[in-house]
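Q: How do we represent a protein-ligand complex in a form that can be generated token by token?
A: Start from the inputs.
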Amino acid sequence: MRSLFDPVQVGDLQLANRIVMAPLTRNRAPDAIPTPLMAEYYAQRASAGLLITEATAISQQGQGYSDVPGLYGTEQLDGWTRVTEAVHDAGGKIVVQLWHVGRVSHNELQPGGGPPVAPSAITARTKTVLIKNGVPTFVDTSAPRALAAEELPGLVHTYQAAARNAVETAGFDGVEIHAANGYLLDQFLKSGSNQRTDDYGGSIENRARLLLEVARAVTGAVGGGCTGIRLSPVTPSNDAYDPNPQPLFKYVVRQLAKLNLAYIHIIEGATGGARELPDRPFDYAALKAAYRTAGGKGAWMVNNDYDKAMAEQAVQDGSADLIAFGKPFIANPDLVRRLRENAPLNTPDKATFYGGGAEGYTDYQVLSE
Ligand code: 8OZ
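Then emit the structure tokens for the protein with 2-Phenylacrylic acid bound:
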């Protein structure tokens, strides 16, 4: 019988178990540079089969929040090298999540104070976080400008360069393409944010074009076996909306099946919220079946509010290969052990999720021996 706690091969990655730490934004990287405290935080959680870093901007244009890390300069890469070394020393595996926020940004965070970029000039009805005098402050996102078609090859190249730097320079075991939660690639996918009339808008094929170009460029640079991708078919996060997600995501996973990815990472329902959305039904089993029918062999990773019983059930009945846990990993560095031993879980403190220092970050207690 398949168990959550047994080793598993995922693409090129040999994982100690099927429990994954989901990407979690924590806003503790001033100037986008990962700190020694971040190395300690990730190393504390290295007993997860796989750690996925917090979303990490591939360029300054891709930044949408204060104090989130980047992958685009020497200091940023050096900071991440400290993190990957600490995780490897602790016996863990870590991939970095490649992020471009698109329209979910603010002029203050953009190069030269310009507008954020998007598929179309439609403002997201959402907020971002600026840290003002050390205090996280929610502000409306700025009005974006539509990317010119001529800018898209450069954008694809930026994803590719970030992936290469991540693996070859910073020592990551792989990368996860962030195509979820209403950020740039999800903005292109969904017609609520994409009203382009060129080859990147309109039909499903056109709206998926940028994502697939990025996926091909990234796998071409670092290999499919160490590349994953995160998708959120129906999340309302950051004003994401598509009236017909089932055929859209079926097409996407069928195309991804050709790239021999390590894994597909699916957020079921509303990110960090309800698993079932009455006004946004979605058949995840059909999505997985479409991927397998198209020859996709990557691990199927699922996320959103799983507990141990649900996770074991999903692994045993084959509906998932890997389970990503988010908030439980914030408060339980030894989550794998606690799940294995049915130990109680610490409760995460929301007040310290975004910004700050060690408090609510590296000071959660582990079980004693
Ligand atoms: C919470 C706060 C800021 C960003 C995501 C990168 O939802 C995020 C994020 C989450 O994917």
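Residues 152-169 form the longest helix (18 residues). The first strand starts at residue 8 and ends at 10.
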